[in-house]
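Supplementary Text 2. Reproducibility record for the structural model of the 252-residue chain.

All settings were left at their defaults, and a single model was retained for analysis rather than an ensemble. We include the record here because the model underlies the residue-level annotations in Supplementary Table 4.
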Amino acid sequence: MTALYIDIETIPAQRPDVLEAIRASKQAELEVALAAVKAPGNYGAEAAEKWMLDKGHAQISALNCAFEADVDEAYRKTSFDGAFGQVCVIGYAVNGEAPQYVRADDLTASGEVALLEAFSCALTDLIPANEVFTTVVVGHNVVGFDLRFLVQRYIVNRVRPHAIIARASQAKPWESDKVFDTMVQWGGSGAKPGGSLDKLCKALSIPSPKGAIDGSKVWDFVKAGQIEAVAEYCAKDVAATRAVHQRMTFAA
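Retained model, structure tokens:
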């Protein structure tokens, strides 16, 4: 059986309308919160005025100061949503081959289309047609995140996913001949998820891929023009996932 190890890195929505909608939603929330800043109801007019001077204005200032941070936090969360976030790097490896990656230097929609098409082409080149339906996709949280996000982005961009990805995305979490999720398999059926890849690496004495970059810093590195560093980090995640998978299946 052929094993395809994958990992993806994602970034927030690159569509201006999505950011505008987030800002409008947060603005509405802010206005509700500001309107709620009032002195206790049992205060008289003089006491209420003093309360506003002493405490009310401070609360209003704090709410206004937190607005941009709230918008940014909500915006960053779109990187976990395949409806609006985008894939910026896909790392992959077939069996014991060295991890490779495709990356999107162009963060526009056309850049993501090129990324998705390049990944599909790479799979066609690497995996013979007669092995497509005997290839297992392996990843950490690959069922709950990577595969679903990938397929959603393929749909959004009107690009048909490679048959290997489509097959794995439709598999049940326990169908380990189609998809082997190291997080699911470590946690076991009916159990809580098995934790982060970093945790499993530490438990199994495998060097962790986490360093200067982790998932929470991907967007900051991409914005700073360091997508190559993100791609290298993604490739390390692929290698670590393979090492964990091999330990869990007693292949190494």
